[in-house]
Amino acid sequence: MKIVYFFAVAICVASALPQKQTEEDLPAPGLINKAQAKTPFYEDKCESTGINCLLNCDGIVENGQFQFCGNCSTFLVCEHSVTYYGHCPGDLRWDQTAQRCSEESETCEECYIPPLCTVTGPVCTPNDCTDLPNDFHQICDNCTSYANCLGGELVSMHHCPEGLFWNNLVPKGCVAESETCIECFDLAYCNTTGPSCINSCEHVEGDGVYQFCNNCVQFLQCTSGVTEPVYCPVGMYYDDNSQGCIETSGTCMHCANPEECESTGDICVRRCVGVEDGYYQGCTNCTSYVECDNNAIYYIECAPSGWVWDNAVSACLPSSNTCEECYTKY
């Protein structure tokens, strides 16, 4: 009787011990539990983990995994703009470039402080793809990342490999030295850059390129009255004499003195493109005149000092019958 009892107890104890599972016994891997995944695993530690991070999937049309702004242990799983949260195991951190959880992340920095820069050049976009063509574009935050725009929407952000910077000139890509991207680029906007500048092509008769009154790193391409702003490469400025971008402009001055006269009369010459070589009345003042030479404009002071240009005699005189300082047409 004791032997039977002992045998029964042994069977009960053995059945209570943990049993080794075979591969067939293990549950098959399944999809994320989306009901649970709608809440982050940890509380948000920071406001940002990098320039590529997202708070949620609102407006993201591209399905995939994205860096989360709250912390580096969590990542976003976006499906049709719906937000789900994934979690990296242990001490791993999400890496947006590698698209995986890694021991060291090249993209995720908890409590990331964004740079003070607000512009990286005249061609950058402030993370807004409105009216931009479907393509990769330079962003204004920094030069190591770039935006993917599709249908006027920002669908994703991408990061250049370490040591490379975004170059917005075709063929676009990440390069060792960018011709278009300078972090904390200083772009001054003005009311005028000189007497030959224009703000739009609306009333311009001849097609061609013109100096822009807003700044010197852009110029305007006029075609049948339609205005198309064009950017110079970084470090170059538009010059009306050469009809192109050069390192030092002889005609364009950032934020030229707005107190200068806009006209000295109906016959004054602002630019020499298409004008026959010769001497003409300038538009800024009467104590100087302009020389047009092979489409280039040069300013020459009258001599003796105090004399003024008279276009009727093509010379400087004590008084002028054609030139009126700060002329206003009534």
Automatic annotation (TrEMBL):
<feature type="domain" description="Chitin-binding type-2">
    <location>
        <begin position="54"/>
        <end position="110"/>
    </location>
</feature>
<dbReference type="InterPro" id="IPR002557">
    <property type="entry name" value="Chitin-bd_dom"/>
</dbReference>
<feature type="domain" description="Chitin-binding type-2">
    <location>
        <begin position="198"/>
        <end position="254"/>
    </location>
</feature>
<feature type="domain" description="Chitin-binding type-2">
    <location>
        <begin position="126"/>
        <end position="183"/>
    </location>
</feature>
<protein>
    <recommendedName>
        <fullName>Chitin-binding type-2 domain-containing protein</fullName>
    </recommendedName>
</protein>
<dbReference type="GO" id="GO:0008061">
    <property type="term" value="F:chitin binding"/>
</dbReference>
<feature type="signal peptide">
    <location>
        <begin position="1"/>
        <end position="16"/>
    </location>
</feature>
<keyword id="KW-0732">Signal</keyword>
<dbReference type="GO" id="GO:0005576">
    <property type="term" value="C:extracellular region"/>
</dbReference>
<dbReference type="Pfam" id="PF01607">
    <property type="entry name" value="CBM_14"/>
</dbReference>
<dbReference type="InterPro" id="IPR036508">
    <property type="entry name" value="Chitin-bd_dom_sf"/>
</dbReference>
